[in-house]
Write a structure and sequence with these properties.
- By secondary structure, the protein is an alpha/beta fold.
- It has 2 domains: 286 residues, Aldehyde Dehydrogenase, Chain A, domain 1 (3-Layer(aba) Sandwich); 213 residues, Aldehyde Dehydrogenase, Chain A, domain 2 (3-Layer(aba) Sandwich).
- 35% of the residues lie in helices and 22% in strands.
- The protein contains 14 helices and 22 strands.
- The chain has a 7-stranded mixed beta sheet with strand order 14-15-16-13-12-17-18, sandwiched between helices. A 5-stranded parallel beta sheet has the order 9-8-7-10-11, sandwiched between helices.
- β1 and β2 form a beta hairpin.
- The longest helix is centred in the N-terminal third of the chain and has 25 residues.
- It is globular, with a radius of gyration of 24 Å.
- The chain starts with 5 loop residues before the first strand and ends with a strand.
Length: 522
């Protein structure tokens, strides 16, 4: 039995018991097992807070940026092994594995560069000093200093590489030690990356830990100055929010939950125009990248009633070319879902949506390439449609976390905005048009209910980064059902791992404070 080790309290430890098996979602074979049973979590969290936290806070931002750069080099050196693990444990094609693995390495490198620019200081000044009296002798200066706690990451199964490092990069740069609990189904890649970084010795003891297996007891180990970041279902998010650590001890929580993201084709983008073609290509891509298992994937597609049929035919034609099956076969363009359990969830969601929609493209019945449908967690892309989105309430409430999207018509942009807002808050909406003024108006109209609005016009077709690609320069998160959290967004991400305080003192003391800090340029 290959039981993956946990790294806690500065040493590798095996959990007790038989553990939970990790399976190849295409072949069904067992790859490894994980267990967190029997671990002394309290000791591990204390070690991270005291040993890891003290070591990190003793360093400057520039020095911690150097740690990130070193991590990036370690991960780059082991990149080929990560691709092999991703194929085996996540069932992803090489291209889709790159979204996760290379995205992680890129994000670490970006925060290393930003951290270098913060310089050799240990605090950030927030705004200019403010007078506290008529005379400029008594001032108030807001500062940001690293929290004296740990950052607990409870992560989702779809991004075992990026999901770790997009959170860990700003945490470590801030001077806060990290404890990551990867989703069990795909824990191998996260565990291997942590193991490589630990073996390379690039981080001080206690700066990073990994717990694989059950999350039981992790929230109980949190204390007031810790923070917790969760990515997953709204149901589990509710459990975290109601836990004593958050509800009573005021542990800071960042949540990313469900999201019914939208793509909106503006009226000017008629069939045959570049903007029309951009929407079609983006919807097909977002439905199939990582088999639709992205928090940011397009779930609802809104077009004018006059263009409904043309869009349905064009997207279906793209999807018909997608080959699904074993990612080890070079002809396969879309691999597996992460597990048979996830396949069952997708099928159940599809059944619920089909009660209010028509099937416009049924990839679910297409044959698989080099994969046994009785074993593999594979399903082809399915495009649904409804001509009555005002009454089809389930399409605005049910997120099928797989290669599924629903097409719907709108009559006027105000109605389109209303349909999109019925998602009750999403991570991202994308807009397609050649009219810059209308793009701006639409983006502002949707900004209140989305963490990001991605506007694609022919002018940016060659350089746009994609509806679902989360770049470190932009905010990742969303209001309402999307969880209400915020990640990334440049140096804004550091705010979650810092504590803001107002220092009130004489001018000379405030001058000394500002001299020992760097302005928090967001």
């Amino acid at each position: 039995m290959n039981l993956l080790q946990n790294y806690l309290s500065g040493r590798w430890q095996a959990g007790t018991g038989q553990g939970t098996p990790l399976l190849d979602p295409v072949l069904g074979t067992e790859l490894a097992r994980v267990s967190s049973a029997g671990l002394d979590l309290a000791d591990g969290f204390t070690f991270a807070r005291e040993t890891g936290g003290n070591a990190l806070r003793a360093m400057t931002y520039r020095e911690r940026a150097g740690l990130l750069a070193a991590i990036g080099k370690v991960l780059q050196a082991n990149r080929d092994a990560y691709y092999e693990i991703a194929t085996a444990n996540s069932g992803t094609t090489k291209k889709d594995s790159g979204v996760d693995i290379d995205g992680a390495i890129f994000t670490i490198g970006q925060y290393a560069r930003w951290g270098e620019a913060l310089g050799d200081v240990r605090a950030l000044s927030d705004g200019a000093p403010a007078r506290m009296s008529k005379e400029p002798a008594f001032l108030s200066q807001h500062v940001l200093v690293p929290t004296r706690g740990v950052a607990l990451f409870i992560n989702a199964f779809n991004f075992p590489a990026w999901g770790l490092w997009e959170k860990a990069a700003p945490a470590l740069l801030s001077g806060v030690p990290v404890i990551v609990k990867p989703a069990t189904a795909t824990a191998w890649l996260t565990q291997r990356m942590v193991a490589d970084v630990v073996e390379a010795g690039v981080l001080p003891a206690g700066a990073i830990s990994v717990v694989c297996g059950s999350s039981q007891g992790l929230m109980d180990a949190l204390k007031p100055f810790d923070v917790v970041s969760f990515t997953g279902s709204a149901e589990t998010a509710g459990v975290i929010r109601s836990h004593k650590a958050v509800a009573q001890l005021s542990v800071r929580a960042n949540i990313e939950a469900d999201s019914l993201n939208s793509a909106l084709l503006l009226p000017d983008a008629a069939p045959g125009t570049p903007a029309f073609d951009l929407l079609v290509a983006e919807v097909a891509r977002e439905m199939t990248v990582k088999s639709g298992q992205k928090c940011t994937a397009i779930r609802r597609v809104l077009v004018t009633a006059a263009h409904y049929d043309a869009v349905a035919q064009a997207i279906s034609a793209k999807l018909a070319k997608v080959t699904v099956g074993n990612p080890r076969n070079d002809t396969v363009r879309m691999g597996a879902l992460v597990s048979r359990e996830q396949l069952d969830n997708v099928k159940a969601g599809l059944a619920e949506l089909r009660g209010q929609t028509d099937v416009l493209h049924d990839g679910a019945s297409a044959p698989l390439v080099d994969a046994d449908p009785a074993i593999a967690a594979c399903i082809g892309p399915v495009l649904l449609g409804t001509r009555s989105p005002a009454t089809a309430d389930r399409v605005h409430a049910v997120e099928v976390f797989g290669p599924v999207a629903t097409l719907m018509p709108y009559d006027g942009l105000e109605q389109a905005y209303d349909f999109i807002r019925r998602g009750e808050g999403s991570l991202v909406a994308s807009v397609y048009s050649a009219d810059a003024a209308q793009i701006a108006e639409t983006a502002l109209a949707l900004a209140d209910s989305h963490g990001r609005v991605h506007a694609i016009s022919p002018e940016v077709a060659a350089v746009q980064t994609g509806h679902g690609n989360v770049m470190p320069m932009s905010l990742h998160g969303g209001p309402g059902r999307a969880g209400g959290g915020e990640e990334l967004g440049g140096l804004r991400a550091l705010g979650f791992y810092h504590r803001r305080s107002a220092i009130q003192a004489e001018t000379a003391a405030i001058d000394a404070v500002t001299a020992a800090s760097t302005p928090f340029a967001r």
